[in-house]
Amino acid sequence: MVAGVTYTDPLAEVSGHDGVSAAIEAVHSQFPGFVFTLVSGPDTHHRQARFQWGLGPSDADPVVVGFDVLSTDGDGRIQTVLGFLDQVPA
User: Fold this and answer.
1) Domains and CATH numbers, the chain
2) b/e code 11-29 from CB counts within 10 Å (16+ = b)
3) pLDDT score recorded for residue 42
4) pTM score
5) Phi, psi at 29, each rounded to 5°
6) Closest Cα partner for 89 from 59, 65, 71?
7) Which SUPFAM superfamilies would you find in this protein's record (predicted)?
8) Contacts of 73 by beta carbon, 8 Å cutoff, 6+ apart
């Protein structure tokens, strides 16, 4: 990741390594014991990538499903991540 990386989804808008780490830690605090899994992708072109992910218990279907789109710099380091939530708990 580049130093000024940004991450934006419906629940968070953060920047920098510390901001991204804090956002990930917040998810793990809200859903203890859950793991991220790759649901589909990645599909890439022109320094862009998209993929669908799941979050849930390691031995069950995901409780949360989302879709991320990211862009990279010329060295392949992540510059931006845009997240979308497709399925969330009621």
Assistant:
1) 6-87 (3.10.450.50)
2) eeebeeeeebeebeeeeee
3) 96
4) 0.89
5) -70, -40
6) 65
7) NTF2-like
8) 2, 47, 79
* Cα–Cα distance for residue pair 8/21, rounded to 1 Å: 13
Q: For residue 65, how many C-alpha atoms fall within 13 Å in the half-sphere facing its CB? A: 8
Task: Tell me if 31 sits within 8 A of 58, measured CB to CB.
Answer: no
Helix ranges (H only) for the chain are 16-30
Q: Match 């992910």 to its residue by tokens.
A: 53
In the chain (90 residues long), the average pLDDT of successive 10-residue segments reads 97 97 96 96 96 97 97 98 95
